User: Which sequence fits this backbone?
C-alpha cells in the first residue's frame, strides 16, 4: 500500500488551503464566494454519475489521472486570471476534478484489497491514506502561509508543481483485475450500460440499509464543507483581538474588517498557515484511528455520535470565542474519522460492478445538499459574521440530522453484498 499512500500525499492542496478564502475575498464578497461554492456543488451533482461511469468503463486509474490533470489546470488558472467569472470557470474545472476522483479512488482501493489482501482492511487503509494526505498538507500549509505573505499567487505556483506529481504516483498503481486484460478492456459482463447504472443506484441508495445513512452523512459532509470555507475569516474574527493584544500587527480597521476585506499582512498569513498545519496534524488522528474507532464503537454509533458532537462544536464559538480553536480542530478531524467507516459500510453493501458509479452517487447526494447551504451561508456571513453563519450550519444539522435519526434507521445490521452478516455495524 506504499504507492497508494504516496498518491494520497500528492493530492493534498495544503499550499493554498489556509489562505484560499482570503485570496478570493480580496476581490469578492462573502455572497459571491458562496455563489462560487454553490456552483461547484451543483456542477458536481451533474457530473458525479457520468464521471463515476467513466471510472467503471475506462478504469479507476484513468479516471484518477484525469482528475489530476483538471486539478493542476484549475490551480494554474488562479495564477493567471482573476475576477468572479474567471473564478467560476476555474471552480468548474475543480468540480470536474473532484467528481472524477470521488468514486474511483475508493472503488480502486476496495477492489484492490479484495483481489490482493482483505477488503475488511478498507477502513484501516483508507483512514491511514487520509492521515498521510493530512500530514503532507500540514507541512505545506506553513509554507503556503509564508508564501502568501510574500505574494498571493506564490502558494498556487507551489501547488501546481506539487500536485503534478500525482500523475507519476498514479502510474505506479496496479490496475484492478477487471481492467488489466487487453490494455484495460474488461469483460463486457463486468460492465454496466447507462440504464443498468440507474437501476443499481436506485436499488442501493433509495432503499434500506443505505438510504438513511447516506442522507445523514450527506448532510453532515455538506455542513462541514461549507463551514470549512469560513475558517479563515472566522479565525480572524474570533482570535484576531487576542492576537493583537500580543503585539501582532493586524491590518487597519481591525480583525473583523480585515476578514471581510480579505486583507492579510505577512504575519497574519503565516499565522493562518501555522494554525492550519496544527489543526491538520491533529485531524490526521481522525483518519489514522478510524479503524480503531469502528472496532470500538461499531459503525452505527460512530456515524451517529461523531457528526452530532461536531455540530454542537460549530455552535459554541458564537458565545465563547476561544472555543473556536477546538472547533477548527473538530471540523478538520470529523470527516476523516467518519468517511472511511461510512464508505466501508457502503462498500460492504454493494456489488463490485458499478462500485465507482455508486460511490459517486453518494458524493452527488452530499453535493446536492451542499449547494443551497453554500448560498445561504454566504448571504448570512455578509449580513452578520462568518462565526454566526457557521453556528447556523451547526444548528441546522442538529435539527435535520436529528429528524433523520428519529424517522430512519442509520447503518443497521444487514446482509452484505457478499451474503455475510454485517455484524461490525451493530451498535
Assistant:
Amino acid at each position: 500500500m506504499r504507492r497508494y499512500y504516496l498518491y494520497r500525499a500528492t493530492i493534498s492542496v495544503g499550499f493554498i488551503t489556509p489562505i484560499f478564502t482570503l485570496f478570493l475575498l480580496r476581490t469578492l464578497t462573502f455572497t459571491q464566494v458562496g455563489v462560487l461554492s454553490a456552483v461547484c456543488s451543483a456542477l458536481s451533482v451533474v457530473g458525479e454519475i457520468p464521471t463515476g461511469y467513466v471510472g467503471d468503463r475506462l478504469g479507476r486509474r484513468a479516471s484518477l489521472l484525469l482528475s489530476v490533470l483538471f486539478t493542476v489546470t484549475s490551480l494554474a488558472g488562479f495564477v493567471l486570471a482573476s475576477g468572479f467569472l474567471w473564478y467560476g470557470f476555474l471552480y468548474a474545472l475543480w468540480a470536474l476534478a473532484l467528481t472524477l476522483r470521488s468514486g474511483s479512488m475508493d472503488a480502486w482501493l476496495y477492489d484492490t484489497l479484495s483481489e490482493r489482501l482483505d477488503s475488511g482492511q478498507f477502513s484501516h487503509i483508507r483512514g491511514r491514506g487520509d492521515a498521510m494526505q493530512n500530514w503532507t498538507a500540514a507541512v505545506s500549509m506553513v509554507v503556503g502561509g509564508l508564501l502568501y505573505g510574500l505574494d498571493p499567487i506564490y502558494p498556487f505556483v507551489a501547488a501546481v508543481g506539487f500536485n503534478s506529481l500525482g500523475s507519476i504516483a498514479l502510474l505506479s498503481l496496479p490496475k484492478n483485475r477487471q481492467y488489466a486484460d487487453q490494455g484495460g478492456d474488461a469483460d463486457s459482463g463486468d460492465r454496466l450500460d447507462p440504464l443498468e447504472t440507474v437501476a443499481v443506484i436506485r436499488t442501493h441508495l433509495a432503499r434500506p440499509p443505505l438510504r438513511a445513512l447516506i442522507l445523514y452523512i450527506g448532510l453532515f459532509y455538506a455542513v462541514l464543507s461549507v463551514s470549512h470555507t469560513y475558517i479563515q475569516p472566522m479565525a480572524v474574527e474570533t482570535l484576531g483581538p487576542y492576537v493583537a493584544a500580543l503585539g501582532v500587527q493586524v491590518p487597519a480597521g481591525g480583525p473583523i474588517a480585515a476578514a471581510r476585506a480579505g486583507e492579510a499582512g505577512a504575519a497574519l498569513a503565516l499565522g493562518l498557515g501555522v494554525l492550519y498545519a496544527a489543526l491538520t496534524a491533529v485531524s490526521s488522528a481522525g483518519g489514522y484511528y478510524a479503524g480503531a474507532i469502528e472496532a470500538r464503537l461499531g459503525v452505527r454509533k460512530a456515524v451517529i455520535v461523531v457528526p452530532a458532537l461536531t455540530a454542537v462544536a460549530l455552535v459554541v464559538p458564537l458565545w465563547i470565542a476561544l472555543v473556536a480553536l477546538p472547533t477548527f480542530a473538530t471540523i478538520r478531524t470529523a470527516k476523516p474519522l467518519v468517511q472511511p467507516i461510512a464508505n466501508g459500510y457502503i462498500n460492504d453493501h454493494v456489488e463490485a460492478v458499478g462500485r465507482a458509479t455508486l460511490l459517486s452517487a453518494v458524493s452527488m447526494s452530499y453535493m446536492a445538499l451542499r449547494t443551497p447551504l453554500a448560498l445561504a451561508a454566504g448571504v448570512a456571513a455578509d449580513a452578520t459574521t462568518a462565526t454566526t453563519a457557521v453556528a447556523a450550519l451547526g444548528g441546522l444539522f442538529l435539527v435535520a440530522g436529528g429528524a433523520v435519526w428519529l424517522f430512519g434507521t442509520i447503518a443497521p445490521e444487514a446482509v452484505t453484498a457478499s451474503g455475510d452478516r454485517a455484524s461490525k455495524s451493530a451498535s
